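tool=predict chain=A
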Amino acid sequence: MSWNAKYSDYGIIEIQPDGDLIRRNHMTAAADRQLEDIRRLLVLLLMKLGSPSEEIALALQVDSSAVRKLISARKVKKVVSERDG
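tool=predict ok
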């Protein structure tokens, strides 16, 4: 890392001698993968409990189609039936 590196909320930003900026993240690719896995598991749990993709999408601030692409609701076996709720 060069002497002219700046720390920010987005990681480390290094200014190269030619003026180019290189952004280095705090997390590794493995940590990014683990966070994505946790996200998928939480979405799966919510779907098993009967939460509609629209509600999950609202919490994640994404479109509901992104949630449906992440995990197919048809393949998820619900824990709580509509009658029990």
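The CA atoms of residues 68 and 74 lie 10 Å apart. Confidence is low (pLDDT under 50) at residues 1-5.
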